[in-house]
Predict the structure of Outer membrane lipoprotein-sorting protein.
Amino acid sequence: MRKTLRSFLFNTSLIITVSFSWSNEVPSATELLNKVDKLYQQDNAYAKLTMEIQTPDYQRSMSMESWSIGLDYSLMRVLTPKKEQGVATLKRENEMWNYLPKIRKTIKVPPSMMMGSWMGSDFTNDDLMREGSWVEEFEVDLRAENGQYILDLVSKENTVTVWGAMQIIIDQETLLPIKQIYLDEDGSAVREMVFSDIKTFDGVTLPSVMTLTPLTKDGHLTRVTYDDLSFNVEIGSDFFTVQNLQRRR
């Protein structure tokens, strides 16, 4: 199975200050894809966020904090509710661990578990292992419709991905993403991410809310809200250790 999956979650590696100054000319497909690709990437970032999970059977909410350096290092820790406080996930390059404080156990996530749900949400462990560059991994075509740019992505020959294709819809005025649609190998939409509530954090303007809906599961969605974001945080790669993963704060 093809395996690279791009996610906007958790990698507060996710945010970079990118300055684009377009002329009156329409930006190229590659320029737009590069902008969106880097919108949620940042060295040395800290975030507080809320995750809401909805299913036909229950609703739950978690508050979390995360630290990251680029795409290689990230650590996320659950703050509330109390019964899940201290549950944490660590990513170091291409390795991942989960810490479960109730049983005081650290579990290394094997490849066979990468498509499993993270904390009961619609995001998978694989979403947290975000790697690579869309510009390098996908062929992209651009079209403009009704005040929007639409990017159609098809993976290159050697790209490993779980998706047959993707589509990214961008507002022409703000150049910020509105929606991302994931398609299977038959071209059917499988899930979609909707971006909303644009805010400015530490000088960076971006959608602060991301709602992921699996289109094959009625009544399911996961919403992530960035409550606070800081950049240029003084942390190094030595912060992202299994020992630090196990600490409550």
User: Anything to note?
Assistant: The helical segments are 29-39, 125-128, 134-137, 242-245. Residues 16 and 146 are 28 Å apart (CA to CA). The first helix runs from residue 29 to 39.
